[in-house]
Amino acid sequence: MTRGRAVRRFENRTVLVTGAGGGMGVSHVRAFHGEGAAVVIGDRNPERGARLAAELGERALSVTLDVRDEEQWAAAVAAAEERFGPVSVLVNNAGVAQAAATVEHTEPADWRRLLEVNLTGQYLGIRAVTPSMRRGGGGAVVNIASTMGNTATPYFAAYTASKWALRGLTRTAALELGRDGIRVNSVHPGAVATAFITEPAAPGAAPIADAYTPEPFAVPRVGEPGDVTRLTLFVASDDAAYATGSEFVVDGGLLLGPALKYAPAPGEEAA
What we know:
single chain; 271 residues; Rossmann fold
């Protein structure tokens, strides 16, 4: 008896990932490619993207993409269609951090940069891929948000505001595009072991990881890129075909607050 080949969820689909040359982006690209997708590696550093594309082979294409640039978005989608066909999945992964500062001491230039990349960049991405997805009969957009978009975080007003606003963008786009067969959802990571939290956001600043410990939470460890990637693949796949305008949290219980430790009842032996 011959066993059939394992089903790969993104066979014959074109997946565009932004911020794809580093951090979680690389993890996303590798996983979608491993599931059969043709991957378009969008990164503002063309050398990083080109190295990854060369490693993955013919089902990978590197494009220069600063998500703030409308013309680069148009060129990226055109290149994807020319090489592989209509875009099936957009993973709006690109994002930037900010140095810790109160609202009073946040520079307007820093505020604008955070919103331009983390919010406007994702809006431009949805806007750019929508016609391509329509031509292909539908698709899925996954906006990478943050648990900071679900709560207040002192010293990170610009970042927090950008992620709160992204929730509204996600839900509105889901309402507008659902009848075109295009689903729009968001994934909200907590603390994940990438340069985003392990390296300073600005010269002389302390990395976020210096002020964070996962010990109090239900899953007492820092997340790995793969934790976010596996959820992102599910949300983008047909396995989540009935989900749109939804928020998927992957944070080890951070938003839940400190977890209780089991305390044996009187007379009960501890495990």
